[in-house]
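Thread: sanity check for a docking pose with flavin mononucleotide

Original post by kr_44:
Hi all, I'm comparing my docking run against an independent structure prediction. Below are the sequence and the ligand SMILES. Could someone generate the full complex and paste the structure tokens? I mainly care about where the ligand ends up relative to the chain.
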Amino acid sequence: MKDLLRQARPFAATTRNRIVRATKIVFSFWRLSHFYYFALSRAFSGEHGRVIKGIRLFLDMDRRRQNTYSLRRNIHRLEKGLVMQPRRRLFALDYVDETVANYRNLCIQGSVDDSGLLDWSHDVLAEFFRVTPADPATGSARASFEALPARTTKKKCAPYPRSESPGSDIAYDQLLTLAQRRRSVRAYQKRPVPRELLDKAIQVGAQSASACNRQPFEFRVFDDEALVRPIMRIPGGTLGWEESPPMVIVVVGHLRAFSEERDRHLIYIDSALALMPLMLALETLGLGSCIINFPDIAEKNAAMEKLLGLNEDEIVTMLLSVGYPDADGLIPFSQKKSLGALRSYNRTA
Ligand SMILES: Cc1cc2nc3c(=O)[nH]c(=O)nc-3n(C[C@H](O)[C@H](O)[C@H](O)COP(=O)(O)O)c2cc1C
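Reply from moderator J.T.:
Ran it for you. Here is the predicted complex with flavin mononucleotide included:
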């Protein structure tokens, strides 16, 4: 009987898969997907739970006017207003009060671990009030800002002419070679990764573009063997090489950065944009890396939440293994798409 059941298992699994797939096809028509994900599948329930918790945390920080994400976004909007040509005489009327209130409270609170944010906020607000005329619409924000102690920053953190950008002598061919040299590494030396090298690479990743410059993610770096191993076993895409890397970065997205559901994907977009230059920087430092997919599956999320003590709005967007490549380890060739397959000009259909 046992044997019979064992033999029937794969058959049962295939039949079940077929039924699930057929059901999905049926429910993909009309607006039946609403019903499917409401009544038959929990696939998105974790996501919408986290998204709405993120919104609650955002609104709570906003109510207390201690919202670093809102401040980042608004300072970014002020900078866009300042660089506009021609610049409008007055702008930001609908958000300058809350921007100054956030800046003021975060300065007073003194617990912001990102002093760069306060420097940037100060210099941009100072520039805004310098170039816009005194007006009743911005009067209370101006008075509140001017009552605060001025910050002296090493370098002015406000709009500057493009001609003052730092020069770079990296030629196209050098960048192309670096991009070609970077390939996913899955066999590493046991040698530990010096933290100062990792920090240097992160500083490159930190320069990446992000929506409204919010950077709604953090890099949790692990180089303690006792943590690296269990972390490497959670995602699933590491089978056969999970024992190799001496270091792993868990990229954690912060949904509390947003007040609207429509922005929920930015944690993935922004963290991925930051990771690629970080990987290229690792390559320049003699280190190899490999991105590891983190599937949005309840048990995997729960395992990571427990191990890392994640907040209710935090979700792992991906992992990155890091280490000195084993010189004898093989690298998949990974042929890239040809230019013709990858891009088109002015295509409308
Ligand atoms: C989002 C993402 C998820 C990935 N997940 C895994 C993974 O779970 N396991 C793995 O071995 N490689 C993973 N990779 C690495 C890809 O397999 C690899 O980037 C791809 O085959 C191209 O090779 P290259 O990185 O050497 O250019 C992932 C890459 C990306 C961008």
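The CA atoms of residues 89 and 131 lie 8 Å apart. Hope that helps with the comparison, let us know if your pose agrees.
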